[in-house]
Design a protein that fits this description.
about 110 residues; alpha/beta; 5-stranded parallel sheet
């Protein structure tokens, strides 16, 4: 599944990507190996701690943002790709498409 997401987003070395509802970094970490910069947005404090721990030793550029994805997305600026996993607890909101990244993929 991770490979399908990476291939579907067509992320390259100059790409700026947002991984919404990123959890502990299942997609964030592999995205950071392909993209120039990854915004990792997660509201659960325990997942943010796990993500920071999982990032140890990773060379990719990752900015971890502890907050609500729908509120944070408009502040991220230009994005080449957007990866997000809505959940029953946090479904996709109508605000999300306003970011207009080149590629969007709900994993």
């Amino acid at each position: 599944m991770i490979q399908l997401v990476l291939d579907g987003l067509e992320v390259g070395p100059s790409s700026v990507v947002a991984d919404l509802y990123c959890g502990a970094g299942t997609f964030t970490l592999p995205l950071s190996q392909r993209a120039d910069y990854v915004f990792a947005v997660e509201s659960a404090a325990s997942s943010v701690r796990d993500l920071r721990r999982n990032m140890e030793g990773i060379d990719g550029e990752i900015e971890v943002i502890g907050g609500d994805s729908a509120r944070e997305l408009p502040t991220l600026g230009h994005l080449d790709a957007l990866c997000g996993r809505p959940t029953a607890r946090r479904p996709c909101q109508r605000e999300l498409p306003k970011a207009s990244p080149r590629r969007k993929l709900n994993a």
